[in-house]
Amino acid sequence: FCCCNLSAPTSNLLPDVLDQRHASVILKAIKDLVVELEEFGIHLGLSNAIIQEIKVNAPHEIRTRRKDIIIAWLETGTATRSGLISALEDVERVDIAAEVKELPTV
């Protein structure tokens, strides 16, 4: 029995389990993710087919592709804050990963 679990968590950081309500906050945090975007999608667990479909649908619109990748990932039902941080670290964007670690709740 641990006394530290008696009260409700007071953390106002982004929760670990993510859904579409968090898309706006995530998109603001990853706004500088450009070159690494497709690889980032793979590290999030999206299939190459989904990423290529997103690319074909918006070939010259990086903001749209970034949004579509995040929405597709959030729709998987397996999106987590730790997964997002890990994917950012995998594409060597520790700067953005550090920012995501401090994101507030929606």
TrEMBL record:
Pfam families: Death. InterPro entries: DEATH-like_dom_sf (IPR011029), Death_dom (IPR000488). It comes from Amphimedon queenslandica (Sponge). Residues 38-104 form the Death domain. One of its GO terms (biological process) is signal transduction. Coiled coil: none annotated. It comes from the Eukaryota. Signal peptide: none annotated. This is Death domain-containing protein.
